[in-house]
Amino acid sequence: MDGLKCEFKVVGAVQTNCYFVYNTATSECIIIDPGDEEQAISIFISQKGFKPVAILLTHGHFDHTGAVEGLKAKYGIKVYAALEERETLQDPYINLSSQLMGKRIVLEADEWLEDGQIIELIGEKIKCLLTPGHTEGGMCFYFTGSGMLFSGDTLFEQSVGRTDFPGGSMSKLVQSIRTKLFVLPDYLKVYPGHGMMTTIGDEKIMNPYAAI
């Protein structure tokens, strides 16, 4: 049956999940958080026969954006990110690239997204949920027809993202999770920026940081 499916590749020294959401009928693909290893990602895309149409960024840290520039140029596609993440993407100190990567990453999105905005890509409506706390403009992407949520470093399996980086706040992060994510259906599959997949229902019960 036609629809959307998701595959992923772990990239970079920080072991970031780079996701590929694709339409099984058209092979059109969205790349989410291409953090590193541009060549390996390109080879993966070629092997799978994917046709990239967009890059979505959950936030601007270097380990989620390291391959953006090259992939954007290679495939001629747009980059989407939260408007509130503009400073993080453009400041190598805030996005940690100058301290931890040894090179400066400065990025500009082609489309700046607002909280609650719905975009449509590869035949799916995607709701953009602003979830500050890990960074000022962290954003989760809810694929409403397919039951998938890409949570970046906001929500992990039985954990949450770090809040000791510039722009971080544990109180904001927990509030974001409780008011933006835990109101979503329990069956929703959560694909985090690092680690294993989980569900909203499991995290409401098992997550020691944000359980309600």
Give me the side-by-side strand order of the main sheet: 1-2-3-4-5-6
Radius of gyration: 16 Å
What proportion of the residues form beta strands (DSSP E)?
25-35%
Run of helices and strands: EEEHEHHEHHEEEEEEEHEEH
Provide the residue-averaged pLDDT.
95
What are the segments in which pLDDT stays under 50 over at least 5 consecutive residues? Answer: none
E-strand count = 14
Helix coverage percent of residues? 10-25%
Class from helix and strand fractions: alpha/beta
Count the DSSP helices. Answer: 7
Beginning-to-end CA distance, first to last residue = 36 Å
Shape by Cα distribution: globular
Question: Can you describe this structure?
Answer:
The chain is an alpha/beta fold. 24% of the residues lie in helices and 31% in strands. It is built from seven helices and 14 strands. The strands form three sheets. The chain has a six-stranded mixed sheet with strand order 1-2-3-4-5-6, covered by helices on one side. The model has no long low-confidence stretch (mean pLDDT 95).
Briefly say what this structure is.
Strands 1-2-3-4-5-6 form a six-stranded mixed sheet, with helices on one face. The protein contains seven helices and 14 strands.
Topology diagram in text:
Layout: E1 4-11, E2 16-23, E3 28-32, H1 38-48, E4 51-56, H2 62-65, H3 68-75, E5 78-82, H4 86-90, H5 97-100, E6 111-113, E7 118-121, E8 124-130, E9 139-143, E10 148-152, E11 155-156, E12 159-160, H6 170-181, E13 189-192, E14 198-199, H7 200-206
